Amino acid sequence: MALTHPGIKDKQLKGKDDFVWQVETPLTDKFIIEVEFTDLKTAPPNGGEPHSIWTKNFTQRESSPTVLTSFGRMLSESIHTDITINTSDGSIQAHRAVLSIRSPVFCRMFSHDLKEKELSTLDISDISLEACKALLNYIYGDIQHEDFLTHRLALLYAAEKYDIADLKDACQESLTEDIDASNVLERLQVAFFYQMPKLKTSCKQYLVKFGKVFDIQDDFNSFLQCADKELISEIFHEIICAWKGF
Q: 33, 65, 196, 245: which has the highest count of C-beta atoms within 10 A?
């Protein structure tokens, strides 16, 4: 048997008692209640006009992609750019305001009487043009996944240099996802150098807990010749702890 309660409109729900609706037919067995909210509004506690919570979320969902697309066009079409970035193999235009919002390092450069502010140029000779494009696309919210994967080590370097914390976190997550025998030692060095604990732990687990260190003994021996002593100590501590577990 299905009971349909007539629609209820403009009912204020302030407490648990307001969720009670009277049903004429007595129910003596198990039953399922399905409730559909066609709209749900909130109002300030001290009074005021109620507003739909979904209208706001819908607006945000619709506006966010539009904003990102517009930012991407500003970069790709060089719309009202005001800074030239010189890389190791080319130049690209950008906007000081956008760079300043995303990086406190850029913000300081453009706020003080440094040459970057005076000449409207920024020299980044330690990064390639393609990597710089990937960095700017990330900053402007328009980076493609393949470009991110291709340049993530360069992006990590830039994230550290220009203090872009969310980019550093994104690089760490990405580098953690595809650890294998061909890159684990490099990733371990990267994790140690950039102080990324999650990536470092994942690399050590891959080598020790999963026993992959025995599959790359020659590479591991070469790694021990040049790696930082503190990192080597951490690895052997991990190995000793693993042996104690047997």
A: 196
